[in-house]
């Protein structure tokens, strides 16, 4: 049996605690099946790579590198996603405070404008993907990006403050084809405090090179 290098992080809330915005069944399958599959995929690839090196056999590096990027990014993005949500009324929802609130005002004018743009990024992501809020260390700004799949259109080395998973597996049980309803619901469980924590870490990276 392979040594497990990556593991599924436990949620810090119960599967039913994000209801009614994300149902217990939807969250359970998303976390315990879909996220677990990326963890398993990354670990299987590491084992395959290690075995090929041990046995002196060739690897299809192009295919392995692409697959590893997909599974690792899937694992990483889901890990970020679970922690930037909290049950409504228990740190989830409401309005941001502190530095992230200041940056939102600075860049977007109002919280409503920010939510509108981020929602549009999520709703217009083609196929499977994510909306993400990143911090640009060089110009000290926050920016919205769209990630396709888990690993396309990612800006390397830009810290992620918040992500929203808009793969169908994230919402289909609850909202069917109405992704926009899931995106609207997300604002009731977004954990702004986590954005401030991540922002504080990101700001420390100022002199990177
Ligand atoms: Fe997902």
SSE succession? HHHHEEEHHH
Which hetero ligands occur in this complex? fe (ii) ion
Question: How many separate helices?
Answer: 7
> pLDDT below 50 for ≥5 consecutive residues: which ranges?
none
Please report which band the strand proportion falls in: under 5%, 5-15%, 15-25%, 25-35%, 35-45% or over 45%. 5-15%
Outline, from the CA principal axes? globular
CATH topology: minor pseudopilin epsh fold
Please state the CA-atom Rg, rounded to the nearest Å.
18 Å
The second-level CATH architecture is 3-Layer(bab) Sandwich
Biggest sheet, in brief?
3 strands, antiparallel
The largest sheet has its strands arranged as 2-1-3
| Number of separate domains | 1
CATH class: Alpha Beta
Helical content, roughly? 40-55%
Number of strands: 3
Could you report the average pLDDT, rounded to the nearest whole number?
A: 96
Sheet/helix structural class: mainly alpha
* CATH homologous superfamily classification: Iron/manganese superoxide dismutase, C-terminal domain
Distance between the termini: 40 Å
Give an account of the 3D structure.
By secondary structure, the protein is mostly helical. It has one domain: Iron/manganese superoxide dismutase, C-terminal domain (minor pseudopilin epsh fold, 3-Layer(bab) Sandwich), CATH 3.55.40. Strands 2-1-3 form a three-stranded antiparallel sheet, with helices on both faces. Helix 1 packs antiparallel against helix 2. It starts with 23 loop residues before the first helix and ends in a 6-residue tail after the last helix. The mean pLDDT is 96. Bound molecules: fe (ii) ion (FE2). Fe (ii) ion binds next to helix 1. The site of fe (ii) ion has 7 residues, from helix 1.
């Amino acid at each position: 049996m392979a040594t497990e290098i990556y593991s599924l992080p436990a949620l810090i809330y119960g599967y039913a605690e994000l209801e009614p915005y994300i149902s217990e069944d939807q969250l359970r399958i998303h976390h315990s099946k879909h996220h677990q599959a990326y963890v398993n995929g990354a670990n299987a690839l590491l084992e395959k790579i290690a075995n090929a090196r041990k046995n002196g056999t060739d690897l299809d590096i192009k295919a392995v590198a692409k697959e590893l990027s997909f599974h690792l990014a899937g694992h990483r993005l889901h890990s970020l996603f679970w922690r930037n949500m909290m049950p409504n009324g228990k740190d989830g929802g409401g309005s941001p405070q502190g530095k992230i609130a200041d940056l939102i005002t600075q860049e977007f004018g109002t919280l409503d404008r920010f939510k509108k743009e981020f929602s549009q990024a999520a709703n217009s992501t083609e196929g499977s993907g994510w909306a993400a809020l990143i911090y640009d260390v060089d110009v000290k700004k926050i920016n919205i990006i769209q990630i396709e799949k888990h690993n396309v259109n990612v800006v390397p080395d830009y810290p992620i403050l918040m992500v929203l998973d808009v793969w169908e597996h994230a919402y289909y049980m609850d909202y069917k084809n109405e992704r926009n309803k899931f995106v609207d619901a997300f604002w009731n469980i977004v954990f702004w405090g986590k954005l401030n924590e991540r922002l504080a870490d990101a700001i420390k990276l100022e002199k990177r090179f």
